[in-house]
Amino acid sequence: MIGSWNALPALARASQELAANTPLLDAVVRGISLVEDDPDEMSVGFGGLPNEDCVVELDAAVMDGLTHRSGAVAGLRSVRHAARLALEVMRRTDHALLVGDGALKFARLLGFPEENLLTDRARKAWLNWKANLSDRDAWVTPDQAASSFGTARWAGRAGPEMLAPDAPPPKVPFTYGTIHVSALDAAGNLASCTSTSGLSYKIAGRVGDSPVVGAGLYTDNAVGSAGATGRGESVLQVCGAHTIVARMEAGDSPTDACLVTLKKIADRTRLPHLRDDQGRPTFNVTLYALRKDGLFGAASMHEGYEFAVLEHGMPRAQAAAFLFPRSRDA
Ligand code: ASP
Question: Phi then psi for 272, rounded to 5 degrees?
């Protein structure tokens, strides 16, 4: 099994489940549920960072290599186990993706508990984001209000009407984060799952790559399994996970398949605000690939990322390959 860096506990749990004869995809989903339960993991499930309206919206998908079936939910509110619900979509319906109110209604019908997914920590992160987002609205941080509201903070600052027409938009500290697992069992079957609260402070209803088959995950028993984390828009726009599996089918190693896909993303990133002064993407994407013979790899857009591996029952972190080295003079 392989996964995103935050999947180590999921891999350990999934491996225990497999040892107890739980079917592969169920074992993976139970592993991921563990991370969805963790309030300190702010990119997945309960405690995930909310959207711009301060509401947590989850996306998740599963794919089964043996049957080539998938299930997914997107924009799911009030239900923490998005991955388990995606598995139910696959098992109990003839559909591949349920969104928003429809996904919630489906969860209710199956008896999934409903709750407020917003933890205090995530709510405070949202408040901080909101207060620092713009000096052109009424939100300020308590510090700003106490020390300088009406004086230094505003003195000398250009009001909106004084801003140069080409002034850059305020920097938005978006946070990415997702859990992905791809797994291979002793019988040679493959399965995958990706679950996320998505891009922090996203516009309500925004869906990234995670619940989209072929983007945030793709599994084909004949070839291998792949997944993605990081800037979902970029992964969607190159059909990331499907591209990786197609490259492995054409003969690339798992690591090369990830690197080629990252290169494709980098080459097609044309918007100036997404490129640095050397033309490299300013965001990260990490891709994961597991071939049907057990060979695996992962690669990130930028140097310095790890992924999770479970071999012979032991979970460990391993450095991901990368497309762009960290600049040494930084
Ligand atoms: N890919 C996820 C999304 O765009 C976020 C992430 O993996 O960081 O929703």
Answer: -55, -35
Which residues, in sequence order, are CB contacts of 107 under 8 Å at separation 6+?
76, 79, 85, 114
Look up residue 55 and give its DSSP letter: -
pLDDT winner (highest mean) among 119-128, 149-158, 260-269: 260-269
Neighbours of 96 (CB within 10 A): 17
| pLDDT tens per residue across span 263-297 | 999 999 999 889 999 999 999 999 999 999 999 99
151 is catalytic: no
> In this predicted structure, what is the pLDDT of residue 329?
52
Query: 227 C-alpha to center of ligand 1: Å?
Result: 11
Nearest by Cα to 252 from 270, 272, 271, 226: 226
pLDDT over threshold 60, residue 155: no
Distance CA 266, CA 177 (A): 19
Cβ within 8 Å of residue 239, ≥6 positions away: 214, 215
Give the residue extent of every domain in the chain. Answer: 2-116+174-324
CATH number of 2-116+174-324: 3.60.20.30
Instruction: Classify 101 as helix, strand or coil.
Output: helix
| Cβ of 75 less than 6 Å from ligand 1 | no
According to DSSP, the β-strands at 98-99 and 179-184 are unpaired
The verdict on the CB of residue 176 being under 6 Å from ligand 1 is yes
For CA atoms 323, 326, 328, 330, the dihedral sign is positive
Position 4: which residue type? S
167 pLDDT exceeds 80?
Answer: no
Taking the centre of ligand 1 as the mean of its atom positions, its distance from the CA of residue 193, in whole angstroms, is 13
